[in-house]
Amino acid sequence: MARYRGPVCRLCRREGEKLFLKGDRCSTQKCAIERRAYPPGEHGRDRRLRITAYGLQLREKQKARRIYGILERQFRNYFKEAARMPGITGENLLKILEVRMDNLVYRLGFAPSRPSARQLVLHGHFNVNGRKVSVPSYRVRPGDVISVREPSRNIPLIQDSMETRAGRDLPDWLEANVKTMQGRLLRTPVRETIPITIKENMIVELYSK
Q1: Which of 5, 35, 58, 65 is the most core-located residue (most Cβ within 10 A)?
Q2: pLDDT tens digit sequence for 16-40
Q3: Looking at the domain that runs over 9-97+197-207, which CATH code has it been given?
Q4: DSSP for 129-171?
Q5: CA-CA distance, 80 to 74, in Å (whole number)?
Q6: What are phi and psi of 147, to 5 degrees?
């Protein structure tokens, strides 16, 4: 399964903000943004570089891709699907991305980051409505229950993440139960309740050229 395998801290530096790709490390002084708050590469510190309107649109698209850990072809397919759906295309795109299995595992606090959640899902550590799901792009529907499988409940990564994150700062369309290691998607999220700093209208403008 294709995925980005390079250094992730340079992705945060390129976008100029924390994308929280390394879990708790992103909240410490070891975070690359805290130490080198400029883009990577030879011209990273060059303040004379001017960003065009296209460049701004491209940065928003790249930021969304990197936050959710999706490569270009799949992201473009998501956009095409969002454009066919009724409603606002940009908001539809975020809704599709938010109900991915790996994203919800992260949101519920079962993993410290989305890349970790993706790997845990791939290794088959979670059930949806009692059935094992090992596809990170699986779309969870409202009312579905995500739970940690019995053989996986003693994994240190999951336990540590639940101690620090589970049930905290949850959007109102999710609920989590730390004792039973379960979470539920209550309803489809709306844009106002999706805690992410993406200007989705710029992504629509980029793909609509």
Answers
A1: 65
A2: 666 666 665 555 655 655 556 656 6
A3: 1.10.1050.10
A4: TTEE---TTPBPPTT-EEEE-GGGTT-HHHHHHHHHTTTSS--
A5: 10
A6: -140, 150
153 touches 170 (CB < 8 A): no
Region for 181 from its dihedrals, namely left if φ exceeds 0, alpha if ψ lies in -120 to 50, beta otherwise: left
- Listed residue (7, 2, 38, 35) closest to 21, CA to CA: 7
The domain spans of the chain are 9-97+197-207, 100-185
Give the Å distances, CA to CA, from 27 to 18, 168, 174, 181, 198.
9, 16, 23, 24, 20
Q: What is the DSSP string of 80-139?
A: HHHHHSSS-HHHHHHHHHHTBHHHHHHHTTSSSSHHHHHHHHHTT-EEETTEE---TTPB
Cα dist. 173→23, 34, 110, 141, 179 in Å?
22, 32, 17, 12, 20
Cβ–Cβ under 8 Å, residues 200 and 94: yes
Q: Which residues pair with 147 in a beta bridge?
A: 127, 182
Answer for the pair 101, 140: CB distance below 8 angstroms, yes or no. Answer: yes
3-state secondary structure of 183: strand
Which numeric CATH code is attached to 100-185? 3.10.290.10
Helix (H) / strand (E) element for 174: namely: strand 174-177
CA–CA distance, 201 with 153 (Å, rounded to integer): 40
pLDDT tens for each residue of 45-94: 665 667 788 988 998 999 999 889 899 999 999 999 999 999 999 999 99
